[in-house]
From TrEMBL:
Record-annotated Tudor domain positions: 436-497, 643-702
Keyword rRNA-binding included in the entry's annotation: no
One Gene Ontology term, aspect cellular component: cytoplasm
Name of the protein in question: Tudor domain-containing protein 1
GO molecular function: nucleic acid binding; zinc ion binding
InterPro entries to which the protein is assigned, alphabetical: Nucleotide-bd_a/b_plait_sf, RBD_domain_sf, SNase_OB-fold_sf, Tudor, Tudor_domain_containing, Znf_MYND
All residue ranges annotated as the MYND-type domain in the record: 298-333
Alphabetical list of PANTHER family matching this protein: FI20010P1-RELATED (PTHR22948:SF76), TUDOR DOMAIN CONTAINING PROTEIN (PTHR22948)
Gene designation: TDRD1
Domain of life: Eukaryota
Length: 770
């Protein structure tokens, strides 16, 4: 019996023990120290209301009357829309919490909303602020506040403070092993296409041909494309399939069979003017016609041109327009007799004879010409090459995308348009008799480059490596890397012709990492879409760089090009609690598979498991590029804690350097320190919720880093083995893998390092297999 009685007593004591109640009524713990509740009278704090059983404090009565005036939590609404009623305010507030009363002010247009509890007031306050209804929301403050009587328990010196250690890390209930060490992030040097030293050298060709140093600021976002590292899973699907895209530029990819067919038809169909004999000739049937009296309009696109069909003398600006108009043109072609029209001497102008073999050299290349392109003398060349043809309100077209905020544009004024097309035709015609370069060119030299079987003027930016000569296409603006065998000597008459493109900075657009979404939108404007140029010639000029800050407006849709890019660039913190992004939101890049693969080690803090995190050097540089965007975004957010869900993406602060990195939540054990894996480096750390932020939808950077198992190592490596591995494979080092194998289903890689394993076996750190 005595034992049963003792058990009952213990049970009663356990039933009576309520630690949650103790915490709830403890003013040291359950008190508003920040947020809307911090402005309340101390007697209205949750812990004090709980001790009084929800009753109002004794001083909450007016001394001069029988009517009791309760000082309850309330909000003040100011600057409300005209005509709004109490019922409307009540309906809005009751969506988010219980409302006791809605009162209006007799002196002004304020409304007061009373709430039964602080929690209801805070819930409504946060909802109104978040949804931005258009009026101001303030927390009501108590007037004529009296000092409340101190709580005896708070003044007793012998009372021990409550044990409220909420920062203890729970190591026992974790399923994932954290990294043994906090290692510094590796950094990899990125070599720019051109530096200021190339401009400053004595007798620099680069300074003469680019006096404004435009190509110092256009180090662009297309390194991976130039390196030939493409991903077939992320194609840019833009409407017109005939257009291809490379290094920020559009072009037409034409099969060789089609090219030969067009060359033949061009000789048969389009007449070519011979200025010596003053006649148009057709080589197929030796048709001859006199030169047209004046410049005509293309039958297909109505643009001015001076090329005619050899059979009927209808005007066309090129073979493409003639082909498009053929269904209609065939009804009349050749049926009308050709009249001999004597040319007027005063109307004759110099037109090149190089239109014989018309080719489509780019999306913006057509075969029309008017202006004479003559070489300039040495004194005029520098000024002519950098001549600015931009005018506020003019129509322009994009020729190349350099960064999110830097693009190249070309004037579409008639005289500029004609001169540009004339130059392109000159280059194509000269391409058949060009001499290849036999030795590396010098920096700043103008050459002709073979780009996708088409010829273009290019300027040398760096020629240290014959297999990777850095150039810029002068008449488009995009950078490229070509082999020496793809470069030709430029004829003198093409060297000093001015550039037709200008780099501009998109006003108010930030410089961000070029994601696929941004690239797809910006590339869609490379197909010849007309844009209206807006800028102020005085205030928008950056004089030290010789470049303008401009705004571009789509002429057809009136869409602001700048604002659309800003919308895609600027990361916005998710406001909806259900807006979360998980691991499958980001594309995972696979490492190259095969033999003798060079990789860089991003992190080796989990060598105890026989694994390291690796990527390629080109991808490691890409990782560093978007780190700047992460720091700016995370630093702009208010200090607030966030607990991500399992597999949810987040931004987390790394303890060692205090910087922010992309992460994914692996597990939550309830101690305020979820386990986070840093996606771009591979280490796992326990990060406090105060150092975690929500992931924005705009950060769609791929995951370039992969976990790699080293074949031949045990699943669990001993301390001595780990120490030796850290010496042989230091963090940030470059390793040559004998082979790389991909397990796509598990998103895992296995690498072979035979020499490493042999050395470890020799030293007895790995047991020989039987």
């Amino acid at each position: 019996m005595s034992n049963d009685k003792a058990v009952n007593e213990v049970q009663k004591l356990l039933d009576a023990w309520n630690p949650m109640k103790d915490d709830y009524t403890n003013s040291r713990f359950n008190n508003y120290s920040s947020g809307p509740g911090a402005y309340l009278d101390p007697a209205l704090q949750p812990s004090e209301q709980a001790k009084r059983g929800g009753k109002q404090p004794a001083y909450a009565k007016e001394a001069n009357g029988d009517t009791a005036t309760k000082y309850v939590p309330y909000l003040v609404l100011k600057h409300l829309p005209e005509g709004i009623t109490k019922n409307a305010i009540y309906n809005i507030c009751t969506r988010y919490g219980r409302v006791s009363d809605v009162r209006d002010s007799k002196k002004n247009d304020y409304f007061f909303i009373d709430f039964p509890t602080v929690a209801e007031m805070e819930a409504v306050y946060r909802a109104l602020v978040k949804n931005q209804y258009g009026f101001h929301v303030l927390v009501g403050k108590q007037k004529n506040k009296q000092q409340t009587e101190p709580i005896p328990s708070d003044n007793e010196e012998n009372v021990e403070p409550a044990n409220l250690d909420r920062n203890a890390i729970d190591f026992e209930n974790r399923n994932y092993r954290s990294s043994d060490k906090h290692l510094p992030r590796p950094h990899f040097k990125h070599t720019p296409f051109v530096n200021s030293a190339a401009y400053d050298s004595k007798d620099s060709f680069l300074r003469r041909n680019d006096p404004q140093r435009h190509f110092l600021i256009t180090e662009d976002a297309h390194d991976l494309e130039r390196a030939g590292i493409t991903d077939n899973t992320t194609k840019i699907d833009i409407d017109s399939s005939k257009y291809k895209y490379h290094t920020g530029r559009a072009y037409i990819e034409m099969p060789e069979k089609s090219r030969k067919f067009i060359d033949e038809k061009s000789l048969q169909s389009l007449g070519t003017y011979d200025p010596v004999r003053e006649i148009y000739e057709n080589n197929h049937k030796s048709r001859q016609t006199n030169r047209p009296i004046n410049i005509g309009q293309c039958e297909n696109c109505n643009r001015p041109c001076d090329i005619v069909c050899a059979r009927c003398r209808e005007f066309f600006c090129g073979l493409e327009c003639q082909r498009k108009a053929w269904p209609k043109h065939r009804q009349t072609c050749g049926k009308e007799k050709l009249n001999d029209l004597k040319p007027k001497k005063e109307e004759q102008t110099n037109i090149s004879t190089s239109v014989n073999n018309q080719k489509e050299s780019s999306p913006k290349t057509a075969s029309s010409s008017v202006a004479l392109l003559s070489p300039l003398n040495q004194e005029e060349s520098s000024e002519a090459l950098s001549k600015n043809n931009l005018r506020n309100g003019n129509l322009v077209t994009l020729t190349a995308i350099s960064k999110t905020n830097i693009v190249f544009i070309r004037s579409k004024a008639d005289e500029d348009n004609f001169a540009f097309f004339k130059l392109i035709n000159e280059v194509q015609s000269a391409g058949k008799s060009l001499k290849k370069l036999t030795k590396p060119p010098i920096c700043g030299q103008i050459v002709i480059a073979n780009f996708k079987n088409q010829f273009h003027r290019a300027m040398i930016l760096n020629s240290d490596n014959e297999q990777c000569i850095k150039i810029v296409y002068m008449d488009y603006g995009n950078l490229d890397a070509r082999k020496l065998e793809d470069l030709y000597e430029a004829p003198p008459q093409l060297v000093n012709v001015r550039r037709f493109v200008e780099p501009v900075i998109l006003k108010d657009v930030p410089e961000m990492y070029m994601t696929d979404e941004i690239r797809k939108f910006m590339y869609s404007y490379l197909n010849g879409i007309d844009l209206v140029l807006k800028f102020d010639e005085k205030s928008d000029l950056i004089s030290d760089k010789g470049i303008y800050k401009v705004e571009l407006i789509d002429e057809t849709t009136n869409q602001n090009f700048n604002k659309m890019v800003i919308k895609l660039c600027k990361p916005i913190e998710p406001l909806d609690t259900d807006e979360a992004f998980y691991a499958n939101y980001l594309p995972q890049k696979q490492l190259p598979e095969g033999d003798n693969i060079e990789l860089v080690v991003m992190d080796n803090s989990l060598l105890c498991t026989g694994c390291i995190s690796c990527t390629t050097k080109d991808w490691a540089i890409e990782v560093e590029k978007f780190q700047k965007d992460l720091q700016v975004y995370a630093s702009s957010l208010k200090e607030q804690c966030y607990t991500p869900r399992i597999d949810e993406l987040c931004i987390a602060k790394y303890k060692l350097d205090g910087k922010w990195y992309r992460g994914r939540c692996l597990e939550i054990v309830g101690d305020g320190y979820p386990s986070i894996i840093f996606l771009d480096y591979g280490n796992i750390s326990m990060i406090h919720v105060n150092d975690i932020r929500r992931y924005p939808a705009q950060f769609t950077f791929p995951i370039y880093t992969s976990d790699c198992e080293i074949k031949g190592l045990p699943e669990q490596c001993e301390t001595k083995l780990v120490q030796k591995l850290e010496e042989l494979i230091p963090n940030g080092s470059t390793i040559i893998c004998d082979s790389v194998t991909i397990y796509k289903e598990d998103n895992f890689h296995a690498i072979t390092l035979r020499k490493l394993i042999t050395n470890l076996k020799t030293e007895g750190l790995i047991k020989e297999e039987n």
